[in-house]
Design goal:
308 residues, mainly alpha, 15 helices, 0% strand
């Protein structure tokens, strides 16, 4: 961030607000790539994708300003779009851009890069396979095995130990919005319990009792309600079978895997509601974009005044 700030300062004459404009322009380009990725994935929902991606308040807020979240989202957009283009056109330049984006994410926030690399490897592996679902299941099981294998390897690649240290670093801050969470240890059961606590915190916190502590909690509560409503809608229309399941598209399965990995990491390491809201926002938008595809276009037309 300091290097980018220095470069932008040379272009702007050290004018802070000009730097912010440059920085948000870079972020916008990446978000546009993310939008194109979703259009290619399911063109029928392009208006819904546009409204969610550019007007969903938590995502807009956390990708604005002068901080790394916007740059990370931009890199994620370039990664997903170029990987998608490579799978359709087989142009090496798209693959190079995709992995350069992974490199940037690794440098800025390692778990973004690691999770994106995992998704890229699995996607590239299964795309030409007829038994896609079997390969997805086997790949996930293999990755879980590697995770626990690394947990008993040397300290330099000890992933589980890194998660323990990351959680301890957060707990040492003693924030005002700390949520109940199982403390991680070397015991595998602690990771399972922390995962369950983390999913509860990510999806269902703040509770109604916590809203009274701060008006801002009410906004987070509404955000969670919106996602939970989409979950219910996705389940309802899946049972009704009114549309072809979005999960028939490999891209949507890969997005859900990306969300699951990052939700798991955030859930087990971040015990503060304020930090959770920030860190989950980019992946929450991916989850919303997948869930909205379960809702038939005719039903969405009743909610969206723009013509689709």
């Amino acid at each position: 961030m300091d290097a980018l700030s220095a470069i932008l300062s040379l272009l702007s004459g050290s004018r802070y607000y000009v730097n912010v404009i440059f920085f948000n322009f870079i972020t916008l380009i990446g978000i546009l790539r993310l939008y194109l990725f979703f259009i290619n994935l399911n063109p029928s929902y392009k208006t819904a994708f546009f409204l969610i991606l550019f007007f969903f308040p938590p995502f807009v807020f956390w990708t604005s300003g002068f901080h790394r979240d916007g740059l990370l989202v931009s890199a994620l957009g370039f990664f997903l779009f170029n990987l998608q283009m490579f799978l359709s056109s087989r142009k090496v330049v798209n693959l190079l851009i995709a992995f350069a984006s992974v490199g940037l994410m690794l440098f800025m926030r390692s778990f973004w890069g690691v999770s994106s690399l995992i998704v890229a490897i699995i996607w590239l592996t299964i795309i030409n396979s007829r038994q896609k679902r079997i390969f997805i299941a086997l790949s996930i099981l293999f990755l879980i095995f590697l995770l626990f294998l690394f947990g008993h390897a040397s300290r330099c690649i000890n992933i589980l130990n890194s998660l323990v240290e990351k959680q301890q670093a957060f707990l040492s801050l003693h924030g005002n919005s700390e949520l109940p969470m199982t403390r991680l240890s070397k015991e595998p059961m602690s990771f399972l319990m922390a995962f369950l606590d983390g999913m509860r915190n990510l999806l269902f916190k703040p509770s109604l009792n916590q809203i009274s502590k701060s008006p801002l909690y009410f906004l987070v509560f509404l955000e969670n309600c919106f996602v939970e409503l989409l979950f219910c809608g996705a389940i309802f229309y899946s049972i009704k079978k009114r549309i072809i399941s979005p999960l028939s598209k490999v891209g949507n399965n890969m997005l859900l895997l990306l969300v699951l990995i990052n939700y798991s990491i955030i859930g087990v390491t971040v015990p503060f509601l304020g930090a959770i809201v920030r860190y989950k926002a980019p992946f929450e938008i991916l989850l919303i974009m997948v869930l909205v595809q379960f809702i038939p276009i005719k039903s969405l037309n009743k909610l969206i005044t723009l013509k689709i």
